[in-house]
Amino acid sequence: MCLALAAREPAHGQALVALTFDYGQRHRIEIDRASAVAGRYGAEWLCVELDASRWGGSALTDASVPVPVDGVEENAIPATYVPARNLIFLAVAMGVAEARDADAVYLGVNALDYSGYPDCRPEFIDSFRQTAALALKRGVEGRPVDIRTPLIDLSKADIVRLGVDVGAPLELTWSCYLGGDRPCGECDACRLRAKGFAEAGVDDPALR
Prior knowledge:
Elements: H1 2-7, E1 17-22, H2 29-40, E2 44-49, H3 85-99, E3 104-106, H4 122-135, H5 137-140, E4 146-148, H6 156-166, H7 188-200
Parallel strand pairs: 1-2, 3-4
Helix pairs in contact: 6-7
């Protein structure tokens, strides 16, 4: 979705770079899907390898920790939380942006249906934005790299509607935490996705 929105912005001579992380996640199919989405928009696809499975701590990177399929406790951080994931991803993304002299990084975090992850909250993004402005050469020179989070205050249904409006390739997107050929329909990510499509009144093209 973020790539679809970034592609609609004036280019100003800057090429699109689609950044993907291979962090040892069990749902590795999302890497192939990300490559396909990048190809759809003619963006450079840059896949960064960072094997978080070596230190574990999450059901998404540690095979010994089961992915919850019976829902998660409200106001609790679930087992699918990956320690410092967005903190690390954003740091790398800002480095890539500065190296390419890009003006903005798009991040698809969502603070409404966000599964309780602390690194999806607006206060985290605001704090990181300030830190990056102090840490980057561009920042201290008065040209900070912006962090854009166009989905942060949207419901899942609103995100689906937005995707339809901008023609995003929703059939290529992947949400399921498990590594099967088709979404499991039971994990938290699948449940939230199904809820969003149902409330938007749109059939999920990824299930066809």
